[in-house]
């Protein structure tokens, strides 16, 4: 992250749910005495319209729209729809449930956690800094108070995301007692992350407060910090783990060895180059759900100069996989991130490969054009390399000192 708003960022709880974009406009009635009606539209992460009889739509209409403040005529907001335990039925303190409950249980009790406002009363807020968009969200709605007797994180049916603003000190700064700034940053981030985990959340979203909205892409001013980063493991202590997972496209496969020869044991992954509309090869990884595909020639949409690695099968890009890796490393075998090195005087054909890649999940909510881009991969490499070289502080701090 580049320095922003004096090193300030919002550490928002990251909920395990379905991301929604909610649009509302007021429609004037024919008679002047009639109050204007409200037209409601809801879209998924991929901007697919959600039908009016869908449970997400019904929940928003019943439990979000009633809390729109009177001065609001139109809005576009974003939030996370999360399954929650119904305390009335269970007799227990309500808590958040896994995303699978939204998919498998049609009668799930749900809560919308709103976190951004993109449009309000005829004015686009896309280019406004995040702290202004968040303030607009908070003035547009008055969600019901959380149930204080059941704890600060007990969900209602609609509320704002839990968040804590933090001003991160620079490496040169120190507290009055002599504590190094980066050490303090680690303690703050870990404390907020632990609070999110205790509230049944996946982790944190760390967002620079002065950044505009950038739809459909990950940036280094909006980072995900999952529970994996909490334990002080030797790998993290040596600054190995990347600060975020990658969304990559499997474009080829390698057959297994020995008893695994009849299935594919590893896959070749690629990031997306939107400028040239090609996929650039990064690294192969294994996947427990091994598949079988007919062999075919190398397709034209793969930008690869590989000589030493030849996949057994190429296939059309159709899925996005979430991948966790230890590091990004320079490699002449791959073409991902190659523009980063070609732009330098000592240009060569080096690209970027993944060290210790690990499959996490299939991203059914994303199409291949929404995968991690070539430029994003190169920027992540630059940030990770500079962080490790500067002070070898644990990568799980996400270099938050430069927010």
Automatic annotation (TrEMBL):
GO terms for molecular function: ATP binding; DNA ligase (ATP) activity. GO terms for cellular component: mitochondrion; nucleus. SUPFAM superfamilies: DNA ligase/mRNA capping enzyme, catalytic domain, Nucleic acid-binding proteins. The keyword Ligase applies. The keyword Ligase applies. It holds the Pfam family DNA_ligase_A_C. InterPro entries: ATP-dep_DNA_ligase, DNA_ligase_ATP-dep_C, DNA_ligase_ATP-dep_cent, DNA_ligase_ATP-dep_CS, NA-bd_OB-fold. Residues 103-273 form the ATP-dependent DNA ligase family profile domain. Keywords: Ligase. GO terms for biological process: DNA recombination; DNA repair; lagging strand elongation. Belongs to the ATP-dependent DNA ligase family. PANTHER family: DNA LIGASE 1, DNA LIGASE 1/3 FAMILY MEMBER. This is ATP-dependent DNA ligase family profile domain-containing protein. It comes from Aphanomyces invadans.
